[in-house]
Design brief:
InterPro entries: Class_I_gatase-like (IPR029062), Peptidase_S51 (IPR005320). Belongs to the peptidase S51 family. This is Type 1 glutamine amidotransferase-like domain-containing protein. The two termini are 26 Å apart. The strands form 2 sheets. The protein has a 7-stranded mixed beta sheet. The longest helix has 11 residues, at 13-23. It contains 8 helices and 10 strands. A hairpin with a 2-residue loop joins strand 8 (198-203) and strand 9 (206-211). With 220 residues, the protein is of the alpha/beta class. The protein is 29% helix and 21% strand. The protein has helices spanning 13-23, 38-42, 47-54, 82-91, 102-112, 114-117, 130-133, 177-186; strands at 2-6, 31-35, 68-71, 94-97, 124-128, 162-164, 191-194, 198-203, 206-211, 215-218. The protein is globular, with a radius of gyration of 16 Å.
């Protein structure tokens, strides 16, 4: 897969251009599936999930002008025959994965079978916040909200670095560079702190930071 791991969606020209380049065709010719599952772990059902699915202009992902957009709800997939959803995922051009709770998302990616399918997909994976963090080997104790059955902060490990999103966000007073440094000191491996104008592009293991804002790489 190709990964575009964002803090707050496709919210500037640089990130948008990177996405189009990864798709290798216009957005208007590309099909998408949005995955809102992390939001249930992060805050429960309600208006925010509807806003994500319908296209929330504060976090541009679903509303970019896709040829079509479908919904893939991971909590439902274990009750559905794989022949009903796997071909759909294999044929789509992009997966749009919301923020919320990364460990809840990790749990349902594994339970649904999507985690096993991801490495073989041709789609571009676009994550936002927790939707990006879930690709890391682990998220760090400070981001543990929903507690998985094993009590660990491990996630999918499809990239080899961790992420601290929403750096210096005015609505998140704890997301300071100083706290990011403390978080990174506990991460066993490279870790990025990124603000909302930054994304991390990963293709075949090659990492590139796309930014119109600020970010920092912490190396172990």
């Amino acid at each position: 897969m190709k990964f575009l791991l964002t803090s707050a969606g496709v919210n500037n020209k640089s990130i948008h251009d990177a996405l189009v380049d990864m798709l290798d065709k216009p957005i208007a010719d590309s099909t998408a599936l949005c995955i809102p599952t992390a939001m249930y772990g992060g805050g429960g059902p309600g208006v925010k999930i509807w806003k994500f699915i319908s296209g929330n202009p504060e976090h541009p992902m679903v509303n970019l002008g896709w040829k079509s957009v479908g919904v893939l709800e991971l909590t439902a997939l274990p009750s559905i025959d794989k022949d009903r959803w796997v071909p759909l995922v294999q044929e789509t051009d992009v997966l749009l994965v919301s923020g919320g709770d990364a460990l809840y998302l990790n749990h349902w990616m594994r339970e649904s079978g999507l985690a096993d399918l991801l490495p073989s997909l041709r789609a571009v994976y676009v994550g936002m916040s927790a939707g990006s963090m879930v690709m890391a080997p682990n998220i760090g104790e400070i981001f543990v909200g929903w507690t998985p059955p094993n009590g660990e902060d491990k996630t999918l490990g499809l990239v080899d670095f961790a992420m601290f999103p929403h750096l210096d966000h005015e609505m998140l007073p704890d997301n300071t560079m100083a706290n990011a440094e403390r978080w990174a000191a506990e991460i066993k491996g490279p870790a990025y702190a990124i603000n909302d104008d930054t994304a991390i592009k990963v293709i075949d293991g090659e990492v590139e930071v796309i930014s119109e804002g600020h970010w920092k790489l912490f190396s172990p």
